[in-house]
Amino acid sequence: MMTVFLSVVFWVCVLGVITPYVVYPASLFLLSRLRQPHEPGSATPRASVVISAYNEAAVIREKLENACALDYPSELLEVIVISDESDDGTDEIVREFAGRSVKLFRQVPREGKSAALTKFVPRCNGDVIVFSDANSVYQPDAVAKLVRHFSDPKVGYVVGHQRYHQGDGAASKSESAYWDFEIRLKCWESRLSSVVGGDGAIMAMRRELFSPLQKDDINDFLIPLRIVVAGYRGLFDPEAVCYEEAAPSFGGEFKRKVRIVNRSFRALTRAPGAMNPLKVGVFAWQLICHKVVRWLAPVFLIGCLATSTALAASGSTFFQLTLVVQIAFYLLAVARLIPKVGEFKLIYLCYFFCLSNVAAGLGIINIFLGRKFSTWTPQRTEISKS
């Protein structure tokens, strides 16, 4: 009886591991073929580009030059920088652009991005809010591509296509490979229903749909959930493009993922209707498979290892083989720590997968420990200080 129980647990855990990477993508692709792509429209509403910044002196000038050069009617566009008590000269640089429709809103004391958006988004003049990061460089037509979809009154938010300048390091290549996979999912989700989550680097929403955020809310995930629950649709536009540098190190990416999973799980409790299929339809399935099951992968991986170990010890040849395969996989990941050997693609991708799941596990553990994240220092700021 125990053998049967452990076997069932093993296969449930296997399903949990492969669902977000195999089962869900395959099912999503097939279902998305049943719907026609959304027609973009030609709306040109008043738009406010909102740039959140904390100590971004190294990149803010380039960002503002880029924003001021966007191919969008100047009388319909304003650029707003929300400085979260920056103290590195960011604000002084922003003030140099005061004559070019650039406004500076400064938050004191420092409370994080979500608190800043809650304070200052109501002061924006645009009918559409375009959220951006200080290091995100937009293609000239990016804003026009985003906002055109609001011709459809049922569209509540639109997510753009963030692309990474791929560096030479393993961390950069791993993140780029993962992101290519994510982009495919976004395209299929958008076609079927709504894209799951947003992107703080490039996302637009109707201003009237913005609602106050708590300090520790993850704005670019919670905002889209609330909009879908309110009955609107969220789209992904692959033609609305911005560029960022990929993660400079595995360490920085690890800390970022711990924060994201921690805050995203909390967001689910702030918009529980997003997981109710009676309220949001197929989007609930997308959210659970794409995000929730993936965040729980550390639990499933531990379950696979524990059950296969117990069943292998009982003499099962099949489970002895599965145990060997798992151990070999983790050894490949550990091999990333060996100089030169760790630069092989298979090895650093295994390492990235394991690192991401350890980060997800820590993010969940921090929830039970009561730890919240509302502010952080951008990796580029940390690097400049080191």
From TrEMBL:
UniProt xrefs under SUPFAM superfamilies: Nucleotide-diphospho-sugar transferases
InterPro entries with a match to the protein in the record:
Glyco_trans_2-like (IPR001173), Nucleotide-diphossugar_trans (IPR029044)
Keywords from UniProt, A to Z, are:
Glycosyltransferase, Membrane, Transferase, Transmembrane, Transmembrane helix
S-adenosyl-L-methionine keyword on record:
no
Q: Name one molecular function that GO assigns to this entry.
A: glycosyltransferase activity
Q: What is its EC number?
A: 2.4.1.-
Q: Identify the Pfam families for this entry.
A: Glycos_transf_2
Q: Which domain of life is it from?
A: Bacteria
What sequence ranges are listed for the domain Glycosyltransferase 2-like?
Answer: 48-210
What family does the Swiss-Prot or TrEMBL record give for this protein? Belongs to the glycosyltransferase 2 family.
Protein name, as recorded? Beta-monoglucosyldiacylglycerol synthase
Give the species this sequence originates from: Stieleria maiorica
